[in-house]
Design brief:
mainly alpha; about 75% helix; globular
C-alpha cells in the first residue's frame, strides 16, 4: 500500500525537478535583477538615514550595488555583468536610485519610495531583455600628436 502512494509522488517530484531545472537560469537572472535594484535602493536609504548628502548617497548606492554584483561574478569565475557589452546593469541601478530619491524628495513614505525604486530598476532590466535593448559600446580613439 505504501508503494502505491510513494511512486506517484516520486514521479511528480522528478518531473517538477526536471521542469524547474529548465527554468532555473531564468529565475536566477530575475532574482539577480531584483536584488541589484533592491540593494542599490537599500544602500541609498541607509546612507540618507546616516545623514549623507543626496549625491554621496547616490554614489554609495551605485558603487555598493554594482560592486557587490561584480564581486559575486568574480568569485563565480565569470566576467562581471557591468563589463559585458550592451548590459544595462549600472543603468538599472541608477534608475532605481533616481526613482527612490525622487519619491523620497516628494515626501512619499520610505516603503513606497523603496518599492518604486526597486521595481523601476527591475522593470528596466526586464524590458531590456525582452526588447533586446543594449547600451552603446564605448570606443576610445587615440589621436596622433
Amino acid at each position: 500500500m505504501g508503494n502505491t502512494v510513494v511512486s506517484p509522488v516520486i514521479i511528480l517530484a522528478l518531473l517538477f525537478g526536471f521542469s524547474a531545472s529548465l527554468h532555473m537560469s531564468r529565475f536566477i537572472w530575475i532574482a539577480d535583477a531584483a536584488s541589484l535594484s533592491l540593494f542599490s535602493v537599500a544602500r541609498v536609504s541607509r546612507a540618507l538615514n546616516s545623514g549623507l548628502p543626496i549625491l554621496a548617497a547616490l554614489i554609495l548606492g551605485l558603487i555598493t550595488a554594482v560592486g557587490g554584483g561584480s564581486l559575486r561574478d568574480v568569485l563565480m569565475g565569470r566576467t562581471p555583468r557591468v563589463f559585458e557589452r550592451g548590459e544595462p546593469y549600472a543603468i538599472a541601478a541608477l534608475l532605481a536610485v533616481l526613482v527612490f530619491l525622487a519619491c523620497d524628495r516628494l515626501g512619499l513614505d520610505r516603503s513606497i519610495s523603496t518599492t518604486a525604486g526597486a521595481v523601476s530598476g527591475l522593470v528596466l532590466k526586464l524590458l531590456a531583455a525582452r526588447f533586446h535593448w543594449k547600451t552603446p559600446a564605448m570606443r576610445f580613439r587615440m589621436e596622433a600628436p
